[in-house]
Amino acid sequence: MSAPGTRVFVVNSGSSSIKYQLVDVATEEAILSGLVERIGEPGGDAADHVDGMRRVLAELGDAATGLVAVGHRVVHGGEAFTAPTVVTDAVIEQIEQVSMLAPLHNPANLAGIRAAMAVLPDVPHVAVFDTAFHQTMAPAAYTYAIDREVAREHGVRRYGFHGTSHAFVAGRAAEHLGVPLEQLKLIVLHLGNGASITAIDGGRSIDTSMGLTPLQGLVMGTRSGDLDPAVLLHLHRQAGMSVDELDALLNKRSGLLGLSGSADMRDVTKAADEGDRDAALALDVWAHRIRHYVGAYLAQLGGLDAVVFTAGVGENSPQLRALALAGLEFLGLEVDPEVNAARSRAARTISPEGAGVAVLVVPTNEELSIARQAAALAGA
Ligand code: ADP
């Protein structure tokens, strides 16, 4: 058992669920974790978020005494939040103000914050934003070329997401390479259900594939990623699709699911291996899009020390890592088939010895990252 002074309670609150983890920042271990589901639904785990949080605390029991901090994942910090922030009434109000940019996520995150503050009033609560890491992007990288008044009034610009993961993985990559992060040019591929790619120069995000929302960029489990915005106009005018129908189409019925019938990469690769043409095309589109961004970010960075794979697909699929970089050997980018195929949970190099650019696999750990940032801010 560790001293209680190193424990952080990490909360990821959704509209009908609370995911939680108790993290020891000294040992970097998750002491316990769990999920309260179907909040507010008949037969669900809890009547509301406060009820859910009470149940979680009962579950934690003695383990919840002497917490250093509670760390809350918040999806959208807009331009207001560039770093983790201790939650006050004013901060809650600001998070509410940026809710227009993430109407599904921020209110749900706030419900978790309010509930946790109600049941743990004496512990510092820290909000950690998915967007914060990308606030270092230059105007040229985050500005969409639309009418500037409209953009300003409605907060329309690129924000980027998965920042907690990209920052954590970049730090771990530097440790693994034994080179200060400040000296590295990195491309991090966070390939999970949601997927994004970030160009990181000297530890700062200079460009990232997600935009105003997490819909832009790579081909994801159910999200389309990039498309011509006129596709929306066309489908509205020609197919009579409403805004809600278009939202559902692009966020829930596109990506791998739309192309192949399954959002799960394991199903898609298996189907493709068995000769399914749609699945094979889905993989080709997925990889083509990744290479498009790798090339673009190489140009933005003006050099490259390492490409880093992380999240569900990036950590677990040698086949898809190889496919993502196929044809880029001329840039010094390649994977060693044997090392790539080896299973491991550690940060590791999978490029051949002497390769021009290192290719790494670095497991992400967003909960640990949130816990560390919350503990640092709480002065632990
Ligand atoms: P989330 O965005 O929900 O956190 P994860 O990072 O857990 O997602 O990644 C989930 C994705 O990882 C799923 O598409 C799953 O199929 C994929 N995945 C997990 N293991 C493998 C594997 N061995 N091969 C291919 N894909 C995998």
List the helices and strands and how they pair.
Elements (H helix, E strand, L loop, with lengths): L6 E7 L4 E7 L4 E8 L12 H12 L8 E6 L10 E2 L2 H9 L8 H14 L5 E5 L9 H4 L5 H7 L8 H15 L7 E7 L3 E7 L2 E5 L21 H10 L3 H10 L2 H6 L4 H9 L3 H25 L4 E5 H6 L1 H8 L11 H5 L6 E2 L8 E4 L4 H12 L3
Parallel strand pairs: 1-4, 4-6, 7-10, 10-12
Antiparallel strand pairs: 1-2, 2-3, 5-6, 7-8, 8-9, 11-12
Helix pairs in contact: 1-3, 10-11, 11-13
The site of adenosine-5'-diphosphate has 13 residues, from helix 10 and helix 12.
Oligomeric description of these chains = single chain
The total strand number stands at 12
Q: Which sequence of strands runs across the widest sheet? A: 3-2-1-4-6-5
Ligands bound, unique: adenosine-5'-diphosphate
% residues in beta strands: 15-25%
**CATH-derived architecture of the largest domain:** 2-Layer Sandwich
Order of helices and strands: EEEHEEHHEHHHEEEHHHHHEHHHEEH
The number of helices is 15
Q: CATH superfamily name of the largest domain? A: ATPase, nucleotide binding domain
Helix content: 40-55%
Q: What's the CATH topology name of the largest domain?
A: Nucleotidyltransferase, domain 5
Q: What is the molecular shape?
A: globular
Taking pLDDT < 50 over at least 5 consecutive residues as the criterion, the unreliable ranges are none
Q: Give the CATH level 1 class of the largest domain.
A: Alpha Beta
Radius of gyration: 21 Å
Class per helix and strand makeup: alpha/beta
Q: What's the mean pLDDT score?
A: 95
| Spatial separation of the terminal alpha carbons | 18 Å
